[in-house]
Amino acid sequence: MKHVSETSASLEWISKDSTEYEIRIIDNNFDLWYNLNYSPAADHTKEYYRAKNIIGVTNWNYFYTSGIYRMLIDCLIDYSREIDYGLEVDRKLYWYFRFIISTYKVPLFNDPPVH
Length: 115
Prior knowledge:
By secondary structure, the chain is an alpha+beta fold.
């Protein structure tokens, strides 16, 4: 994802062999919200985060392509089920989606829309 908006997320390779990833969240309010809401006691398994992220990314990309929430969602998130992004990336993406749900009331974790 190359476009930078007021709020967006991107997954990027951080190693030459493309086996390590990092996530960049572009929203001035996310870090504060994350620090206030995340705690190790609320942590989940990597599998839980991946399952929720697949739903979140599916909905995010659907909302983008259909123009729903266009003032907020103005780019696709390139997230593949086949790639292991690592626990940190999956955790941060999940919490970013929770931030979007909490702050902007976007239903990212609802059942994916039927297209």
